[in-house]
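User:
Care to share a sequence and C-alpha cells?

Assistant:
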Amino acid sequence: MARAETTRAGAKRTGTARRAGLRRAAAVAVSAAVLATVGVSGAVAAPRTAVEPDTAGVRAALERTVRAGAPGAFAVVRDHGGTGGDRSVAVGKANLDGTPMNAAWRFRAGSNTKMFTSVLLMRLVEQGRVDLDGRMRDYLPAGTLPEGWNMTVRQVMQHRAGIYDHTNDLLEQAGEETTSAFEKRIRDTVYRPADLVAMSVRHGVQYPPGTRYAYTNTGYVLLGMAVEHLTGRPYGEVLREQVIEPLGLRQTSFVVPDKRIEGPHVTGYLTNDDRSRPLLDSTEQNGSWVWSAGAVLSSADDMDRFLSTVLAGDSGGLVSDASVRLMTSALPTTTAGTGYGLGLREIALSCGKVYGHGGIVQGYQTQSFATRDGRRTVVVFANASNNGAVTQGLTNTLEPAFCGSAKPGVTAGPGPRTAGPGTRPATPRVPVVDDTRI
C-alpha cells in the first residue's frame, strides 16, 4: 500500500467545497437515520474545557503505568478553545537502549484505525452510496458473506452484527496476544482481507444481529472491503486521499504489508507470557491480520488533529454534523460507563462523556479521546502490551487529563469511595473496556 507523504499546507482542505454539496444533499437522509437510532445513551454534559488538566495526576498515572511494566508512557493534551490547557507529559523510555520517551514520535495506533474506517464509511453514506440499514453483504464482492447473512452496516459498525472475531483463531488466548502466536502467525504472515473474513464465516453467526454487543475486528475488515469495493481503489489510497492529505497528517500512514515504521518512532514491546523472560521487541510486524481494523501508523499530534476535525462536523470538512451525531450515539456495552457508536467509543468520566477509541496491538497501547465538541483532545500511550496492569494504568490517565484535580472531600467516578472532611480522594479508576485486544 502507498505510504503517506508530507503534504503542502494548501492541501489540508482539498476537496472540501466539492464534498459540501454531497453532504448537504444527503443531510436529510442522514438526519432521519439519527432519529431512527434507538436505545442511545442518555445525555450527560461533556467535560468543560475550561478545567485545566491535572498535570500531577496525569504524571502519576503514567508513572504507575511504567511501574506496571511499560518501558515508557506519555500523555498529550490539546485545547482548541484558547483555554491554555495544552500539556505534554512523558515518562520512562522510548526503547530499552535508554532513549527517553518522546511524545512527538510515531507508533502503531491499533484499533484507533476503526475511527478512520468509520469516517470513510460515513462519507459514503453522505454520498448516498451506502444505507446504514442496508445489508452489509450488498456492499461487498459477491460471495464475501453467505446468503442469509442479513446484518446491516449499522450493526457491523456498532459491533452488534453477530460476526465472529477472526483474531481469536490467530491468537492463543482470550484478552491479548501471546508471544508464541505473534511469532508464528502475526509478525511475518501476510493475510488477504477475504481470508480473514473466511476465518470468521466458518464459525457462523454468533447471535441474532442487533441483540447484543460483542466487539469484533472482522466487522471493520468488512467495512474496509466495502470501501474498496465501492470506490474501486485500495483502502490505503482512499484513506490517504480523503483523510490523510486533506488534514495534513504528516505522520499517519497505512503501509500494509510493510513491517517497518519509517521516521522517528517509539519501539514497541510485547510482554512475554513467561514474566521472568525479557520483553520482546515487536516493532517490526505485518499489520495485514487486522488490516482496516487496526493497522494505521500515527502520532499524538495527528490523532489530535484527526479527532478534533471529525467532531467539528460541518466546519471540519470530513463528515457532516448529522454524521457526527450518528457516530456519537452510543449504545451500552458490556463495560459499565462505556458505550459504542459508529466507530467511536464513549466513556463516562466523573466530569462528563468523552469520545474516541483505544488501540492495543503488539507492543503498543493508545487511548485517543476528545470532548464532544472536539475542543479538548487527550492521547495517551505506552509501549508495552499483553499486560493488563499497563492497560489499566494508561486508561486511568484520562480522568485527570479531562476532569482536572479531584476536589477535597468529593467522591467521583465509578465504584465506592470514601473521603472524610479535608481529605482528597484518589483519582477515579476508569473501567478498562472488555475488548482490550486490538
In short: Confidence is low (pLDDT under 50) at residues 1-43, 408-425. The radius of gyration is 20 Å. The CA atoms of residues 287 and 325 lie 31 Å apart.
